[in-house]
Every structure is written in structure tokens, then in C-alpha cells.
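Hi L.,

You mentioned the student needs an example of a multi-chain input paired with its predicted structure. This one should do, with 526 residues in total across all chains.
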Amino acid sequence: MTRAAFLLLTVVSAGVAASAADIPLGERKSGYDFMAPETRAMQDDDTANPAMLWVLDGETLWQRREGSAGKSCADCHGDARTSMKGVAARYPAFNAARARPVDLGERINICRTEQQRATPLAFESKELLALAAYIGQQSRGMPIEIADDARMRPFLQAGQDMFTGRQGQLNLSCAQCHDDNWGQKLAGAAIPQGHPTGYPLYRLEWQTLGSLQRRLRNCLFGMRAVSYPYGAPDYINLELYLMWRARGMRVETPAVRP
Amino acid sequence: MTRQDEPLSRTRRRFLLEAGAIAGAAGIGLPRGSEPAAATPASMRAAIRKIVGEAPLNRGKIKIDVPALIENGNAVPFTVSCESPMTESDHVKAIHVFTEKNPQPNVISVQLGPRAGRASVSTRIRLADTQKVVAVAQMSDGSFWSDDVEVVVTLAACLEGT
Amino acid sequence: MARALINVPPKAKRGEVIEIKTLISHTMETGFRPDNTGKPIPRDIITDFVCKYNGQEIFRAELFPAIAANPFLTFFTVATESGTLSFEWTGDSGFSATESVNISVE
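Structure written out for the whole complex:
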């Protein structure tokens, strides 16, 4: 789809607001900017941010030898504070062996199965979230930077199509809320722009840490749309598009959201 | 964990009394009474009486700090502080927090002493609904002091599907 | 992996009032929520928290289901002498966790 056709479709389909589909960098706002001051304070203070409990666990897991290879993450990657700096800001990234992008959680499990010779960690398990939070924290404050890689384009396009296409019983698209109506209210809550700057994050609604995929499933449920199983390529494509859409914004992992 | 529910046959007079006191506490214009415990549903009143006994409940000295409007009732930042020199002879012995519409009225009870230096405690609480939160301080001289605030809880728009 | 995060200034002047911040990993299951089949999930909360300064109790809290998941609790104490601050959380189903930090008082 050309950009013009894409814009036209957005305008026609949205019907209400006809804002540009791609929010310019200067106008991009993190979910943080829509939060109440006390929720921001919770994220800003590492001694009060409950997500730091997972980061601490991740730091321990980084050193733990796992699997039949008896290797820890640190045995290959050394000190995460230097080796993992900026890594989460580049994910999902293209995996040549699989000829498709993988997200950070899948990347961790590839290391587990191929390098450590251990069983993969379950989606949303405490261990996987802890490692992702610890690795993610090493990119805190760094700009999101998805590589401009020709091999990624079809996946990026598929993610964009999913974002802009209407789906579910309410016949809604992601873009209708997060491109066209951000800043407005849905029930009592502000509609954010939907930038995944802080995952995995501590959502007060969940009372725990969760991944971007879990959040996307919440959205799909709200739209009365079909949600895919964890790890489905549809999520990876959408994650890729959302991170590309948030390019230049700062990583906040581990964030707090209402 | 027995919950004492309000008696079904509440008298009209009692209702008006309570409604007036709630309005007063919420700042609607009626003067603030000196017995906030009387302004609350029965289970919370009973929980407070269990702590205070027949002693008078004074208003003042203790202060609740909580946002008036809450994004999510699962984790509401909550601070309660009490004026006191915190000396051996004059200090806060305990602070108790109650709510009127959660499944049970007790939230937290803390025991302090002169070694605290400052009678101030922060935590995060759950609020099931828009409601009143009451804090009661017990002083070393045996007196009780209270504060109450009305907190509005909005519901999250995007809920988990399972 | 029940973990706690304690924040205490490592150094303080004698007589100074210092803030102690504690955060511990715990679901604080209220006992009032139903599971997918409609049966209530049993209560599983931290019920008690105690802080001791060189073995002497300086703060105690009784927690109820209205305390948020991953309980956060901050309070104050007077820095009296160098030594150890110890923290103990106990709760339902035999839950128990302890932590300690050192403080240097001049």
C-alpha cells in the first residue's frame, strides 16, 4: 500500500479524526506522559518501582548456569551492563537462521535452547520476564532504533496492516484509538499513543510484570477481536511495527503503567 | 474475618445523620463533626470501635495523604503522618487505617515508638471503589485522633480478557 | 524467588531521622477473588512485618488483603548506633522472608 493510499484509507475509515497516521517525533508521547503524577513517581524511583524486583531476579538469572551445556548468560555475554546496552532498543530484530524477526523474549529462548541446551522459558513466566526486564533496563534512556533492513520490510508491512486494519466484533483498528484519538478518554482512562517504550512493564491492572504480547492481547480482547497464542508471528510483526513507529523515543524499561 | 454488615432496618434518623456526616467529610459544606467514626458504614465503625473502645475519637493531629482521583484501585499510593514530638513521654503508639467499601474494613495497623523519630508511614493500598478512607492514631497518653478522606477510583478501560 | 528490595542510607549522623523503604515480591491474594470456575482463590497474604535495629523491634505492621500486591512500606527511625537493620515478613501458607542491611552511624 502506498503512503497516500494508506492515509486515504485511514481518513475514510476513521471517519472522525483525520490526523496523519505516523505521529511526528516531536509529537510522540510515551504512555508515561499520560499517567498521573503518583504513577510516574512510582516508575521514576527505583526503590519504589515494583518492577525492580524482576530486574533483581534477572540479574541473578544472568549468572546462573543452565541446561546441559552448563553455561550462564554471563559465560558468553559477560557483564550485561556493557554487553546488553542498547540491545533491547533494537528488538524485534532479524534472525537470519529463521529468516524472520524475533522479539527479545524469543531471542532469550533461542539462547537457552541453542547455547545453554536448556528448555525454553514459558511465555509470561517469572524467569523470562525477569531476564527481559534486566536486559531491557540496560537500554534505559537510549533511543529505540529498529534497523532499516530490507529483509524486515514484509514483516513491518504486515505489522502495519494489522495496526491499521479493522478487526473484531467492534470493527475497530488499533490506529483509530492510538493514531487518531490519542489524548482523549476511553471511560476514565486517557488513550495513549501506544508506544511500547517500557516493556516488560509493571501494570497496576495486572498487579505484576507483563510483556508487550500480554498487553496486545488485552487490546485485542477490548476490541472483541481474536487474540493469537503467545509467540504467534502476528504479535512479532505488530511488535516490530510498534517499535518502528516509536523509533527515536527513549526506552523506559522497566516502566510502570496504570 | 467476619464481616458485620449494616442492619437492614436502619432508621431514617440514623441514615440522615450518617449522610450529613459523609457530606461534611467530603467538604460539601456541613461543618465537620468531631466523631468521624459515626459517619461510616457499620463494619468500618465496628472495626474502629474495636481499636478505640469507648474513648473519644478526636479530629486532628493525624493526616492522610492520598491522590483524590485514582487511575487504578489496585495500587493507590498512601501516606499517613501524625504530628508528635516522638519522645519517650509523648509519642504515637499505633496508626490504623480503615476503608468503608472494601470487602473488609482493615487495611493496615502499624506500631511505632519514640525510636521512629517521625510518625509517618507510606504504602500502597487497594480500593475496590470510590470510598472513604479513615486513619486513627493512638497516642502514648491514651488519646485517639483521626482523619478521613474521600477517594475517587476510576476503572481501567482496558481489562484482561481471561 | 521471593525477593525484597530495601533502601536505607548506608551512613547517617547519630540522632538523624532516616527513612527506610521496603518492597517485597508477593501476590497478596485477597481471598475474595474467584478463579475461572467461580470458586474463591484462597487468601495468601503477608500478615506481619517487623523491623529490628540491632535486635530491638522499632517498627511492626499488621497487613490485610487491602495492601497492594508486592507490598511497599516506608517508615522512619532514629539512627542511634552502627549495626544491622533486620526485616522479617511472615504470612499465610507459612510464608517467611528475611533481609538485613548494615548502617554506619557517626
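You could point out the following to them. Chain C touches chain A at residues 1, 3-5, 7, 21, 23-25, 27-28, 68-70, 72 (CB under 8 Å). Chain C has a mean pLDDT of 96.

Best wishes,
N.
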